[in-house]
Amino acid sequence: MTQNSTSDIGQALEQLDREDLLKFAKGLLANGVALSFHGKRTAMEIAKRVRPRVTRRESRLHVGTPEAQARNLLVEGENLQAMVTLYKFRGLVDLVLTDPPYNTGQFFRYNDRWDTDPNDPDLGTLVAKEDGSRHTKWIKAMMPRLQMMKAMLKPSGVIAICIDDNELFHLGMMLDEVFGEENRLAIINWQKTTVKNNTKHVAATTEYVLDLCQGHRPSPHRIAGAI
Q1: Residue 111 to residue 129: CA distance in whole angstroms
Q2: Per-residue confidence of the chain (227 residues) as pLDDT tens digits?
Q3: Residue 93, SS3?
């Protein structure tokens, strides 16, 4: 390690407050592995800055009796803002099933202003596969959403996240940090296609569903029934 790199590490540590240093040290002592990325501290705190939105009922979309409508709710909107708006349901959700953008260079957008103002309405520009910071942007977008999903779950709740190989390993480390490695349940392989006979390279035929629990491990038959 060079003198310059040692100095950079020292300066980075000096910028952390006591709480951040304790989290960092506990993570290393717990399993020796810690996820580090530029802007992590902001990403860990950004959900607290999201303002709840005013919801509007669309009567033309209502289905069922008033009693049934009171038990079911469909929300259209940006998912982080929606979860903050549904604050009264925190700790009451049995299952969170989410299908985030796979960061393939085709669908994921990122607004740099979200680093300081998560309420900025602009969806940002498309993050190209050639973008050198595309993994960092994806992680910064996902971290506050994973924190909110965990907060929405019951103590016996389960989260299932769909992903492909582009961010599989980063997502696994993030989930270990947010939920804890001890709360892993399963990685389900989903074969989305078959191998073509004329392929000349390794064919990617599977995607994955990562499953974790909030803390109280549910019974196997309950997981199978939910998923």
Answers
A1: 16
A2: 455 545 555 666 666 667 667 766 766 666 667 788 888 888 888 888 999 888 888 888 888 888 888 778 888 888 899 999 998 899 999 999 999 999 998 889 998 888 888 888 888 889 999 999 999 999 999 999 999 999 999 999 999 999 999 999 999 999 998 999 999 999 999 888 776 666 666 767 789 999 999 876 665 544 444 43
A3: strand
DSSP letter at 54?
P
SS (H, E, C) 188-227: EEEECCCCCCCCCCCCCCEEEEEEEECCCCCCHHHHHHHC
Cα separation, 84 vs 196, in Å, equals 44
CA distances from 49 to 112, 128, 144, 218 (A): 15, 28, 10, 32
Structure tokens at 17: 């407050």
DSSP-assigned states of every residue in 130-195: T-TTHHHHHHHHHHHHHHHHHHHEEEEEEEEEEE-TTTHHHHHHHHHHHH-GGGEEEEEEEE-S--
Give the chain's length: 227
Residue 47 CA to its chain's centroid (Å): 12
Enter the tokens of residue 124.
Answer: 């940002």
| Number of other CB atoms surrounding residue 165 within 10 Å | 11
Residue 19, H or E segment: helix 18-31
Tokens of 133: 């910071």
